């Protein structure tokens, strides 16, 4: 079934009887060429590009719950390529380019909306740092614009420009950044992969790996053993506990990040606004809810829910930045488990076990990376070589001293 | 979360800052032959268990002592807290 404007009109006139499920629910086969563990954004994108771009025919995605039950269904949907360091920026810009063409590529409406992101500036030093970042962005063609205080006042007049502690002096804008519909991304990749023969198997938890003579032979699951020539693990916040089953420790701690949504309001916030100094960022969903969040809670957690101090901290940040938010009612808050790496940057690499590959360490920024992460992981799984934009994301970069530490805070995951 | 401070009783976790796995107390011997590998492991690799975790919390806005808190990372339930200095001295005996 292909989606098109014509199809929508036709179905509207014929009682919507022609829509079919977006993917099959096949029984697992005894073995595959490539098994992807984790049916989040990254796992599904990997399977999609494996089938579409790299022509892999026997691929399965094993998901312990339902598609979209992890972080891909919990994040605040911001996509951007405004990084600084050479190891990161080309990768995120590659991702942004894939976002720009995603809906054509998957024939699915993922509601990619390039409404722009503004990082606020409060001091001269911060302006210097953002000018440098903007230059790094322009070097890879990501585009960046330094905004003056007056320009900002015209764009987002509701901000508190004269906050005593953090007066707003300007901003760094990336116009191509924005948001996408998280569920639409899951469903688009899942449908696209399924259409090309990938078996997506839900309610199938990987409980162990079969490893003999240093080579992986398959995975033990809640639905029996499944053989595989190659296994790619993309389980985000569960990376530590899944890789422990292969006897590995990782340069990763799992932490909880919370997010919030208000009642639906008329359009007020033009794009994404980040107030890093106050641990707060916000955008407005197409339904009208203000979607916002702040920092991780800061202690190891697998609980998928946070605690009140961070709720308070985020809402204080919101009130300091845009006092009008105090009039909106909060509808919901929730949490997801972040795979916080030791330098705040991801890992896309093979492991020391032959045939076992790892995609992890996405911290709170893995949604925007979904297309490039899937593409680069598929490239690695299919060709055995890292994709050119992901070549720095090696597992051994820590011991070699090649950390990619955007924030410069060292091996302290709760500070990234 | 309320942390049962051994000297001060139940204290709000907001008074503390968090460092991480309590094994960070055991800094490797810099003169050992494989010190480089040991330090790399010490600085970067983590057990990161889903379940009971022993971890270091610093009572920054309190008596500025380091505690070893035992906590379940799947429920946030706090199972106990000891003074890190006692743990360290106990281990040395
Ligand atoms: C509150 C919040 C806000 C965020 N905001 C943003 C943002 O604005 N922008 C941004 O770029 N990023 C954001 N992120 C981060 C982003 O959501 C994640 O980095 C990204 O989704 C992780 O990749 P994933 O989609 O593959 O993860 P997931 O969707 O978590 O996928 C992993 C999957 O693996 C499955 N799994 C785990 N263990 C097993 C097993 N043993 N067997 C089989 N399957 C298993 C899980 O069930 C899960 O479905 C946010 C995250 C949170 C929680």
Which key terms come to mind for this protein?
heterodimer; A: 416 residues; alpha/beta; FAD/NAD(P)-binding domain; D-Amino Acid Oxidase, Chain A, domain 2; 2 domains; eight-stranded mixed beta sheet; 11 helices; 27% strand; globular; B: 93 residues; alpha+beta; Folate-binding fold; four-stranded antiparallel beta sheet; two-stranded antiparallel sheet; 6 strands; binds flavin-adenine dinucleotide
What's the short version?
The complex is a heterodimer of chains A (416) and B (93). Chain A is α/β, with parallel strands linked by helices. Helix content of chain A is 28%, strand content 27%.
Describe this structure in words.
The complex is a heterodimer of chains A (416) and B (93). Chain A is α/β, with parallel strands linked by helices and 416 residues long. Chain A folds into 2 domains: 11-108 and 182-251 and 343-415, 3-Layer(bba) Sandwich (FAD/NAD(P)-binding domain), CATH 3.50.50.60; 117-176 and 254-341, D-Amino Acid Oxidase, subunit A, domain 2 (D-Amino Acid Oxidase, Chain A, domain 2, 2-Layer Sandwich). Helix content of chain A is 28%, strand content 27%. Chain A is built from 11 helices and 18 strands. In chain A, strands 1, 2, 8, 9, 10, 11, 17 and 18 form an 8-stranded mixed β-sheet that branches. Chain A has an 8-stranded mixed β-sheet with strand order 5-6-4-13-14-15-12-16. A two-stranded antiparallel ribbon of chain A has the order 3-7. In chain A, helix 3 crosses helix 10 (366-383). The longest helix of chain A has 18 residues, at 366-383. The mean pLDDT of chain A is 97. In chain B, 18% of the residues are buried. With 93 residues, chain B is α+β, with helices and mostly antiparallel strands. Chain B has a single domain (2-92), classed as Folate-binding fold (2-Layer Sandwich). Chain B is built from 2 helices and 6 strands; from the N terminus they run βββαβββα. The mean pLDDT of chain B is 95. In chain B, the strands form 2 sheets. Chain B has a 4-stranded antiparallel β-sheet. Chain B has a two-stranded antiparallel sheet with strand order 1-2. Chain A binds chain B through residues 238, 240-241, 244, 249-254, 298-303, 307, 309, 342, 398-399, 411-414, and chain B through 1, 12-14, 18-21, 37, 40, 43-50, 53, 55, 71, 73-76. The complex binds flavin-adenine dinucleotide. Residues 37-43, 62-65, 69-72, 74-78, 205-206, 234-238, 242, 257-259, 293, 336, 362, 364-368 of chain A line the site of flavin-adenine dinucleotide.
């Amino acid at each position: 079934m292909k989606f098109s404007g014509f199809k929508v009109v036709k179905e509207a006139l014929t009682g919507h009887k022609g829509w079919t499920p977006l993917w099959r629910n096949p029984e697992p086969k005894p073995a595959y060429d490539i098994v992807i563990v984790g049916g989040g954004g990254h796992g599904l994108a990997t399977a999609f590009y494996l089938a579409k771009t790299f022509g892999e025919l026997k691929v399965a995605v094993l998901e312990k719950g339902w598609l979209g039950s992890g972080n891909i269904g919990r994040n605040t949907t911001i996509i951007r390529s405004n990084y600084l360091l050479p190891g990161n920026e080309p990768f995120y810009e590659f991702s942004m380019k894939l976002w720009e063409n995603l809906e054509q590529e998957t024939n699915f409406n993922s509601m990619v909306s390039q409404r722009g992101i503004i990082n606020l500036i409060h001091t001269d030093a911060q302006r210097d740092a953002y000018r440098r970042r903007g230059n790094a962005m322009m070097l890879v063609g990501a585009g960046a614009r330094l905004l003056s205080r007056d320009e900002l006042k015209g764009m987002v007049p509701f901000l508190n420009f004269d906050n005593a502690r953090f007066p707003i002096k300007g901003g760094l804008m990336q116009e191509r950044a924005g948001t996408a519909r998280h569920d639409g991304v899951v469903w688009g990749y899942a449908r696209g992969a399924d259409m090309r023969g990938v078996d997506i198997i839900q309610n199938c938890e990987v409980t162990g790996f079969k490893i003999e003579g240093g080579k992986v032979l398959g995975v033990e699951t809640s639905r029996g053993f499944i053989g595989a020539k190659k296994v790619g693990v993309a389980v985000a916040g569960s990376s530590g506990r899944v890789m422990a089953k292969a006897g590995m420790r990782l340069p990763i701690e799992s932490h909880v990040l919370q997010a919030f949504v208000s009642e639906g309001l008329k359009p007020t916030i033009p794009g994404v606004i980040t107030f890093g100094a106050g641990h707060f960022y916000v955008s407005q969903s197409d339904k009208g809810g203000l979607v916002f969040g702040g920092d991780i809670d800061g202690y190891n957690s697998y609980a998928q829910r946070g605690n009140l101090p961070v709720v308070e901290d985020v809402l204080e940040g919101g009130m300091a930045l845009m006092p009008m938010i105090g009039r909106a009612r909060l509808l919901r808050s929730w949490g997801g488990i972040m795979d916080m790496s030791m330098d705040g940057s991801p890992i896309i690499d093979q492991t020391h076990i032959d045939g076992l590959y790892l995609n992890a360490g996405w911290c709170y920024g893995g949604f925007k990376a979904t297309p490039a992460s899937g593409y680069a992981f598929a490239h690695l799984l299919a060709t055995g070589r890292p994709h050119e934009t992901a070549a720095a994301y090696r597992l051994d970069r820590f011991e070699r001293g090649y950390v990619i530490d955007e924030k410069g805070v060292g091996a302290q995951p709760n500070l990234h | 979360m309320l942390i049962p401070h051994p000297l001060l009783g139940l204290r709000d976790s907001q008074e503390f800052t968090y460092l991480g796995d309590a094994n960070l107390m055991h800094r490797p011997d810099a003169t050992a032959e494989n010190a480089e590998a040991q330090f790399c492991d010490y600085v970067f690799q983590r057990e990161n268990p889903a379940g009971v975790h022993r971890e270091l919390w610093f009572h920054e806005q309190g008596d500025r002592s380091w505690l070893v808190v035992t906590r379940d990372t799947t429920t946030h339930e706090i199972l106990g807290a000891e003074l890190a200095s006692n743990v360290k001295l106990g281990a040395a005996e």
